[in-house]
Amino acid sequence: GTSTSYTKVASFSYYAPYVLGDANGDKLVTTLDAVAILKHVVGNEIISDASLLKGADANEDGNVTTLDAVTILKYIVGNGSLGKQ
């Protein structure tokens, strides 16, 4: 038998900048972001980029759901804010 051992030699982390409410990566918060979130929720177009997922969590509850799309739409019409409520 052959034995192989591995030693961890390095680790890294990085900060991925995001715009809260921006789910499509255009650095703006528009109805297109709400649509992107809804497509993600139903499984039509999954948001896989970590920074876009962070931005898509518009109410900062740790999940991307239809409530994030509603939060964005309320924000756009001036009837709410982004982030933790």
List the helices and strands and how they pair.
Elements: H1 31-42, H2 50-56, H3 66-76
Helix pairs in contact: 1-3
Attribute tags:
85 residues, mainly alpha, 35% helix
Q: How do you describe this structure in short?
A:
The protein has 85 residues and is an all-alpha fold.
Give an overview in words:
The chain is an all-alpha fold and 85 residues long. 35% of the residues lie in helices and 0% in strands. The protein has three helices and no strands. Helix 1 (31-42) runs antiparallel to helix 3 (66-76). The mean pLDDT is 92.
Q: Helix amount, in percent? A: 25-40%
The number of E-state strands comes to: 0
The total of helices stands at 3
Radius of gyration: 17 Å
* Topology order in helix (H) and strand (E) letters: HHH
Q: What is the CA-CA span between the terminal residues?
A: 59 Å
Structural class: mainly alpha
Apparent shape: elongated
| Biggest sheet descriptor | none
Mean pLDDT: 92
DSSP strand content: under 5%
Low-confidence stretches: none
